Amino acid sequence: MPGMASTLRPAATGTATGPDLTALLRGCAAGDRAALRALYDSEAPRLLGVAWRILRRRDIAEEALQDTFVQIWTRAATFDPALGSARAWMFAVLRHRALHILRHSAREVISDDETLFERADDAPDPEAIVSRLAEGARLRRCLEGLAPDRRQAIVLAYAGGLTHGEIAGRMGRPLGTVKAWLRRSLLALKGCMQ
Predict the structure, then answer these.
(1) Ramachandran angles phi, psi of 133, nearest 5°
(2) CA-to-CA distance for 96 and 76, rounded, in angstroms?
(3) pLDDT of 72 strictly over 90
(4) Among candidates 42, 52, 45, which has minimal Cα distance to 22?
């Protein structure tokens, strides 16, 4: 069909199927808020879909999308069309942001999945793990110098492989408390081991 070729061109070229994303990124780099709005209107649904596939939670995917558009706005001047398309650049920004959130928030989110705590209960007791360390081991002496709840948190994290949220759930403590215990206990262990 003669007229069909023009409608199949990619949206990044600014055809009837979509805006010129490269021009809109240049507009963002120049501080044009209307360009950012046009980029958002054009690309947010696709970007949100990708974020959801990576993060598997809509609320966190929406957070990643918002962070992505903040980064697009502040870093638009770094886009180089010679290195790839505008859409690919925006998807790379989103992917980087989503993976960052995934890496850093996975340890902070308390799971609603009760089976995680059941599996954690099948693990050896933290005190049993400490007692299995060699009698004269420096690490054992340092661990025994910690308060029992802090020692338990450290062992659950590093020997049991539990996340901060899982430890908080298992110990029945607030997440912030567990994170503070772990941070302070690691500092104490580092000082003791030196």
Answers:
(1) -65, 150
(2) 15
(3) yes
(4) 42
By residue count, the chain amounts to 194
Query: Half-sphere exposure (CA, 13 Å, Cβ side) for 170?
Result: 27
pLDDT in tens, 146-189: 899 998 888 887 766 777 888 888 888 888 888 889 889 888 88
Largest distance between two CA atoms of the chain: 84
Supply the pLDDT for residue 99. Answer: 83
Concatenated DSSP letters of 76-91: GGG--TTTS-HHHHHH
| Domains of the chain with CATH codes | 7-105 (1.10.1740.10), 114-193 (1.10.10.10)
Residue with tokens 């558009």: 69
Specify the residue for token string 């928030």.
105
10 Å CB burial of residue 65 (0-12, 13-18, 19+) is: buried
Give the span between the Cα atoms of 176 and 88, in whole angstroms: 38
Q: What is the pLDDT of residues 95-113, one digit of tens each?
A: 888 888 877 765 444 444 4
pLDDT of residue 139: 75
What letter does residue 176 receive in the DSSP assignment? H
